[in-house]
Amino acid sequence: SGPESQPFGHPTYLWGNISAIDVLNLGKNEGEMYGGDLDVLFAASGDPRNLMSTVNGLPDTYGGTMTCVLNDKYINVVARNIVMLLIAAQLPPAEAAEVILHVWYSARLIRGMLTVIDDYVRKPVADVVFKIKDKSDKVLQSKNWTFGPADITLRLTKSQWKTVLAIIDAKPDLSKTEEERRKVVLTPHRLDCRDRELINLPGFGRLCSARFRETGVLATLAWSLEHFDCPNPSVIPST
Questions:
Q1: How far apart are CA 223 and CA 126, in angstroms?
Q2: 147 and 111 in contact (C-beta within 8 Å)?
Q3: What pLDDT, in 10s, does the model give residues 171-202?
Q4: Model-level pTM greater than 0.85?
Q5: CA 224 to chain centre
Q6: How far apart are CA 157 and CA 72, in angstroms?
Q7: CB under 8 Å to 198, separation ≥6 — which residues?
Q8: Would you say the C-alpha torsion 108, 110, 114, 116 has a positive or negative sign?
Q9: How many CB atoms lie within 10 A of CB 189?
C-alpha cells in the first residue's frame, strides 16, 4: 500500500464536486402544467448550485409557492450562501450574477464587490446582531427579509449570527491569504493529483485550470486582474 493521503487546507467544502441538479425536473415528473405548492429540502446543501438549478428549472407557467430549506453544519458555507442569496434577491440579475460568480469562486474581489456585500449583506446582518445582543444563545434567532414576491429567512443561534457577521467583516491581508491559498492549491505534495486532473482536459482547459490555481480568480484569459486586489472574506475559514 502507498503512503496515506495528506490533508491540505481547512476541511470545509466551499464548492460541490458534482454538477448542479434540478431536483424537481417538473417537465419529466409532475408535468409542465403543475401548479401546486412545492416544499424542497436541501439538507447539508453545501453551495447553492442545486437550489439555483432547481429554481431556474421551474416552467415559466408555474404559479404556485415554492419553499426551499437549506442547512449545513459549516458556518462558512452558511455565510457564503446568505451572501449570495441576499445579493441575488436585491440586485438586477446581470449585476448580481457577476458579483455572485466571484464571491462563489474567486479568492480575490474587486473593491466595488466588497461595497455591494457591505450595503446589501453586512448591514442587514449587523442590524440583526445588534437587536439580539441580549438574547439567549440557547435558542435560534430568526430574521425574515421580504424582496417583492420572495422571502429569505435565516435561523441561527446568537453566536452563529455573530460569526456570520465576523466572516463578512473580515479584512485580511492579501499577501497572507494568497500565501495560504497557494500552499494548498499549488503544494508540490499534490502534483500528481493536479496532473491527473489535467490529463483529462483539452489543451485550453488545462491552461484555464492552471491559471485559476495560479491566480485564484475565475476570469477569462483576456481579463486584467489588476483590480482584483481584495481578499474574498467568504473563502477564509472561520476559527
A1: 34
A2: no
A3: 999 999 999 999 989 999 889 889 999 999 99
A4: yes
A5: 23
A6: 14
A7: 206, 209, 210
A8: negative
A9: 10
